Amino acid sequence: MAGLSFDVLRAGRKYRLINFGERNEFVIEKVLVDGDFKVKDLLTLETYKLKDLLAYGKGKDYQLEEI
After folding, report:
1. Closest Cα to residue 24, out of 33, 8, 3, 34?
2. Per the CB 3.0–4.6 Å rule, which of 5, 18, 34, 39 could disulfide with 26?
């Protein structure tokens, strides 16, 4: 189950991404012009682009869901 698509993500909402055994929980701070998102990690409070999490592709366990 892949969960949500990138085109339904909204700023200010919290999401969980599971990919290659890693679990990331983040809030979307800003929708960028190039179709990417500026996100803030809920555990470390680090900010980064969402595409950085998918730089190595999508694993068999890929799932994106709203929390």
Report:
1. 3
2. 39
Protein fold of 6-66? SH3 type barrels. (2.30.30)
pLDDT digits (tens, 9 = 90+) for 26-57: 999 999 998 899 999 999 999 999 999 888 89
What span, in angstroms and rounded, lies between the C-alpha atoms of 38 and 30? 5
Based on C-alpha coordinates, what's the Rg of the chain?
A: 11
Amino acid identity of 15?
A: Y
Edge-to-edge order in the sheet of strand 14-19: 47-49, 37-41, 22-31, 14-19, 63-66
Nearest-CA neighbor of 18 among 56, 53, 51, 49? 53
In angstroms, the CA 48 to CA 44 distance is 11
